[in-house]
């Protein structure tokens, strides 16, 4: 049987890839994709812990479902915002969207 | 009967409401409403009077009813009605004169005439031009409906005053009449003289009313009631009041209250020294002069004095010295009678002569009450109302005729100046005959006229009561009265016309002459009901109806018949009439008064009304103005009070500035300003971190999370 740590390692790797994408990519859509990766890394963790440690209950599954829902919603909102920003400014580059500069 | 008594004053009140709410500008409707209401009150009054005449014991058991009105803690102020002989008699003449004057007003205000092109509300109508006609014709009064609304309200107040059973309701009605008098004197409000006269009348009568209110308050606090019967028909109360001393001048309470209430009479009945408003009140339309300032309202003052006669004369018996208020009344009344009659001699305005004559006749009544001749006073009140209303309406008819002539000819003569008239007897026969009847009644033409009987009764009471000075003064004023009455008749109606206006007058309409005829009948006949029982042969034949009716309010007993007062009264009347005719019979100039040549300086004094108005101006008005404009306004208000206030203000200003300098700016401003500056400074510095680049934020948060994780690790492990 595959030990728990392997799952955790995969999840950690995935999280780091996502984090790197979020921090390093210039395209906002790519940043969004990085975020999805991070969320799914978290989901893997949740399911892995649930499966190995609390199998009798449904907590983990429910948490994962909630995260999916939140991720879907977030993606929908995020994409909407990006499209709107593109229409207004003609660009989806994160560094160009600096209206909030103090 | 009780219900009827309650109802008698109400129709005119309803008429007032209806006219002012629904009949504005509707001339015919407004006068019909007013006339119907006056007619209803008239019918009610006559029914009551007829009923009262049939009762033998009306004096002891008057018709009375009352109901609670205003709660005053433990008790109630009540509103009620009372019909005793005095009220019944007053109701009789009030109802007649009011109805006649209402009818007359329709004609006086030119109902049915065209509307004048230049007539304005608040001014007498200027006349209208008709196509194809020569000159102008009279035009209808612009505020026709308003006039009827006002006189209806006035009639209500007068009826209410007469039937009221307590002083409070009487006072309320009294003041409503004061208001109506003000409104009606100022009816032609666009004329400054009318406005001034209205204010003068209102303020002058208010002086008397103030004292009357004090008297009322004293009466209420002493007896706990204002009901006439409970006070005036109760010997115990009267006796207590007459024997307890008041704190003022050692007078008894009865005397003090009597004097205070008499002050109300002085104001309302225009006695000296508050008489000056009445002649000026002639600024109002003539029916108003007749109604308010001759027949009814000024009679209310005497009516009140007669009502309070038991209190005024409390503790007095015939033949004894007079009580203080009686003495004051006798002196004020007889003085006013002579004083006003003399002034009437020097007047040229037909209405002003009558105004002074009214003052003089009211003085007669007051003097009669003063010497205890209650019956004679009420009798004179009764007859005077008729003949004075008649004279005023007659003079209104004359003025109307003169104005007609003036409009037709464009003449500039004053239509009220007797010297610009003359010879009107042929032009206005009905007016002439009725006016003559009134003038003869006023001068006391022997045997025939009402004025003779009532005046003779007063003179004979004065004679029999041994008040010789008063007798002489009253006889003298009777002489003067006869003189100026005949002067008026001679100047107005006899001789030949002295101006074009006078030539073009013609008789007034039927609606004006019928009231004149009705009143003339009373002016002659009203006296036949009061012939004293002891009068030669006549007394036996005509019962002294009025004397018996008024009954035993202890009166100076006439005793045996004595010819002296009778001869004096006949003598002065005929002499005065003859002299008046003699002096003015050949008047041909429209300006010069032959009296002026004869009397010289005295005439000027009469013409200027003994300078009473000027004296008041000097003694009251100028000091009041000085007090207001200089002392109060300049010295006290602007100097003292403003000084203090400015001082306080300046101190406040200085104190405020100091506070601001010491506390506000350094502390209260400094602390928040410092905080704001700090926030601003830190914000300026911190804004550098806000790059607007999302990914920088994320890196920062990542680093912080890592840092937090490391700290947590260290803490948990360490």
Roughly what is the average pLDDT of chain A, rounded to an integer? Answer: 89
Indicate the CATH class of chain A.
Mainly Alpha
Oligomer: heterodimer
Helical residue percent band of chain A: over 70%
Per DSSP, what share of the residues of chain B sits in E-state strands of 2 or more residues? under 5%
**What is the end-to-end distance of chain A?**
54 Å
Taking the sheet with the most strands of chain B, its summary is: 2 strands, antiparallel
The percentage helix of chain B is over 70%
Number of helices of chain B: 30
Strand tally of chain B is: 4
Q: Any idea what the CATH architecture of chain A is?
A: Orthogonal Bundle
Radius of gyration of chain B: 36 Å
Strand order within the widest beta sheet of chain B: 1-2
Sequence stretches where pLDDT stays below 50 over 5 or more residues of chain A: none
Q: How would you classify the helix and strand content of chain B by structural class?
A: mainly alpha
Q: What does the average pLDDT of chain B come to?
A: 82
Give the chain pair forming the largest contact, with residue counts: A-B, 13 and 13 residues
N-to-C series of helices and strands of chain A: HHH
- In angstroms, what is the radius of gyration of chain A? 17 Å
What fold name stands as the CATH topology of chain A? Helix Hairpins
- What is the number of helical segments of chain A per DSSP (H or I, 4+ residues)? 3
